[in-house]
Amino acid sequence: MADSNFIDYVKFCSRSGAGGAGSVHFRREKHVPKGGPDGGDGGRGGHIILRGSSQLWTLLHLKYKKHVIAEAGKNGEGGRRTGRDGQDIILEVPLGTIAKDAETFELRHEITEDGQEVILTPGGRGGLGNDHFKTATNQAPHYAQPGEEGLEEWIILELKLLADIGLVGFPNAGKSTLLSSISAARPEIGDYPFTTLVPNLGVIPYRDDKSFVMADIPGIIEGAAEGRGLGIRFLRHIERNSILLFMIPADAESISEQYRILLGELEKYNPELLDKKRLLAITKADMLDGELMKEMEADVPKDLPYIFISSVSTYNLDKLKDMLWQAINS
Asked: Is 311 annotated as belonging to a binding site?
């Protein structure tokens, strides 16, 4: 994804259509002296609908759509003819999108399946025509219901990427290099911090035509929860990942200290992230020999599954995929 094309947050005004008014009408035909009321109902106002699409990865197509306005329903007519419903507006969104009220931040809807549809802002009901109000004592009602007003509200859409594996690490830990080595994704790679400015997704092929999805999240630094670096803007994408793969380079001063800092930043953002299954990949292992690896193993946190890998030399990448696949299916 190009940097400017990845949009995971939009805010817009959603206005549904008003319902059409019911009709006040009386039957007037030759040889029918007392035709009676026959006013039809008004049509329903148009809904604003969200629909999930597996073909979309970003909210870019909604970035400049600040007002979404649905059509009003048509008024009823004589002869018990119901007015036409207002045309619904369907907004297609990528899977993992949540809709929130912009004022109260209340979670309204969550789109997780392809083709899933939810009514974001319902249209107003159409009014009843005077045909509904005739009684034995009121055989010629001269009134009908007006249509219900549509709703107008400000909505926030947020995208949280759906992936099996989320890569967590400091800048330059080798996350993008790993993704490019084991998938067809081509994230930007450089020898400077914050090369990755937006999340990247890659489909990792596995044995017997199986596959899983990996998300490369921009690097986290100490103090990210307070807004340092890229802050917590992209941490929301980790919330939807089944497993967190922590990546720490072999040339780090202390593996356990870097792991502690990363874990602390996740906890500050959302303590529930600590409930996810965690694995550790020690990257850039092509610069190590067997003795150095054994020395470094003492610095690995206890009860944390780990593996030494090198994305450049492909060292242990197949074992890493086995490890991830087993974690996903356990």
From this structure: yes
The answer to whether 99 is a known ligand-binding residue is no
Collapsing DSSP to helix, strand or coil, 83 comes out as coil
What DSSP element (H or E) covers 215?
strand 211-216
68 annotated as a binding-site residue: no
Q: Residue 104, annotated ligand binder? A: no
3 state SS of 200: strand
The string of pLDDT tens digits covering residues 227-283 is 555 556 667 777 778 899 999 888 888 888 989 988 888 888 788 888 889 999 998
Q: Residue 66 annotated as binding? A: no
- Residue 124 corresponds to which tokens in the numbers above? 């107003």
> Tens of pLDDT along 56-88?
888 989 988 999 999 999 999 999 999 999 999
284 labeled binding residue = yes
Report how far apart, in Å, the C-alpha atoms of 138 and of each of 28, 29, 70, 79, 98 are: 18, 21, 37, 19, 51
39 a known binding residue?
Answer: no
Q: Was 195 annotated as part of a binding site?
A: yes
The answer to whether 174 is annotated as binding is yes
Q: Where are the beta strands (DSSP E) in 48-205?
A: 48-53, 67-69, 89-94, 97-101, 107-111, 117-121, 152-159, 165-169, 200-205
pTM over cut 0.85: no
Is 286 assigned to a binding site? Answer: yes
Residue 30, annotated ligand binder? no
| Residue type present at position 245 | L
